[in-house]
Amino acid sequence: MNAQKLLLARQQREVSLLQNDPAYLETIARDRLDLMKEGEAIFRLEPAGEKRKRDNPTRR
């Protein structure tokens, strides 16, 4: 039951951050959704030998 309480607390914190912290929202938009501001160019560096995530059709 402690694990459920911890999970609930984390999710409530994330909801609060998404609703109230523009910097956190921007970070999520960039990192999880691959969004960028107009005129920006994004360069992602991958460690050598790591399989590219672009092989996964759900990601851009």
Q: Stretches where pLDDT falls below 50 for ≥5 residues?
A: none
* Distance N to C terminus: 37 Å
How many H/I helices? 2
**Biggest β-sheet: count, sense, barrel?**
none
Secondary structure: elements and pairs:
Blueprint lengths: L1 H19 L1 H10 L29
What does this molecule look like?
0% of the residues are buried. This protein is mainly alpha-helical. The model has no long low-confidence stretch (mean pLDDT 85). The protein has one domain (2-55). The N and C termini lie far apart (37 Å). It is 48% helix and 0% strand. The protein has 2 helices and no strands.
Offer a quick outline of the entry.
The chain has 60 residues and is mostly helical.
Features:
60 residues; mainly alpha; 2 helices
